[in-house]
Amino acid sequence: MAAPARRKRTPRTAESMAKSQREISISEFFTKNRHLLGFDSPAKALLTTIKEAVDNSLDACEEAGIAPVLLVEIRSHKPAKLGIELASVDTPEKKKNGNGRATAANGGGKNEERYTIIVEDNGPGIVPAQIPRIFAKLLYGSKFHSLKQSRGQQGIGISAAGMYGQLTTGKPVTVYSRPGAGNPAHRVQLQIDLKKNEPQVLVSEETIWEKDHGTRIEITLTGSYKRGQHSVDNYLEQTAIANPHVHLTYVPPKGEQVVYANATADLPAESREIQPHPYGVELGILARMLKETKCRNLNSFMKEEFCRVGDKTAEQIFLHAELPPRKNPKRLVQDDIQRLLDGIAETRIASPPTDCLSPIGEDLVMAGLRSGVEADFYTSVTRPAAVYRGNPFQIEVGVAYGGELPGDELARVMRFANRVPLLYQGSACAIHKAVLTSNWRSYGLQQSRGALPTGPLVILIHMASVWVPFTSESKEAVAHYPEIVKEMRLALQEAGRRLQRHIRRRAREKDAAKKQSYIQKYIPHIGDALQEILTLDDGDRDEIVTVLTDTLERSRKL
Description:
By secondary structure, this protein is of the alpha+beta class.
């Protein structure tokens, strides 16, 4: 068979190539790269949607000082039919099947069904003008420029979930919100204009809603509901453990309603926004800050735009940088900016404040573990705050051991970042690495080389930070910064030492109980022998008593 003829390449000019170049919308980019946001499989898409909605609800409730009461419901519909084209979507991503017919992307698998995800909270609600931008515009939010601990960071998640539902089912996002008892409730239906990354409001009307305040979101999408380690059920169970102040009601598509009651009525400590730390600033960022500042001299710029910079610290920075403190920041040239950055690096500056963080706390970590794990021993460790790239963070570790946990399986590791469970990409996460590289054999556990320890053990690790360094936009794994891994290992070592003392104490108690059982077993025989001894004459009696005493002494030593 002859080889097919090669098609001749048509030369193109710079002018003709320029005509095909255009700006790419962020919505169009993530439409084709949805895997970056956690929508790379039907099962993960279902989990990611619920995760983003729950994160938003918890952040809103805590920021408003309201004890969160959440409802999460998954409603199953009939399986999506093969070959359906989503005509209502602006730019549907399609692929060819084996017969050459176009089917909707992620919408025609045999095991895939349509689900409606409902997440409802009792938060402060949302003013009607903001609803379209929050739920139907990517990269829109209030957390990105704020240096304080929060679950959301990028302003992508919930709008990306609505975009995924729009792509796979063509259904709009429906939002109910009421910002207070004295205000009417609103019902809004939204879609995203993928070319412009702008919201399209299909319906906006006042409605009747029984809640005094709160928000409810409904997203219909194509997904797959499964149970197991990476399931929605596991995610919500771990969310209840890491957030003991939350009352959560879960209605799965299969099975009975599950209620996770709050273990405490106290809200987490409020995290306060801080200014960036000088050690975390880079040359380009510093140049932009100098250009945009409203300060009239370098001295006030350093003290007002950064944290932990007072008069003495600023003086040392300018001395090392050889710059006058009264110089106008906007007049610094590239060499001046580099000298200022070098002066910062040469100056000893205190670590950033930690009131921007809100860790779970040792008592509540153990309370959460007790509510979700049946064990005999619990302990928790909260490390002092540390810094990476100028960003403060704290590591917390909780350990549960024994009880009903399986003793012949690998330990279970529960990973959290800013109170959010991380279920995927475990092997790529710094948390997993810290557990693997810890020597658990020295604490009385079995551990193979390069593996998790074996035994009835659950390990919880939580990282609280103003900016968690995730490895991707899907926020599933923490990057391997040496400072972060070091703090995790130090916390694990402290928890391991406490576990070791417990294991040794239990071993001693078990050994003592074993000896006691021996004594209880032979006491009746000793009693009978003593009765016989009493009937003997003095010489025989003394000899037998000596033999019995020696025997008891040897058994005690054994």
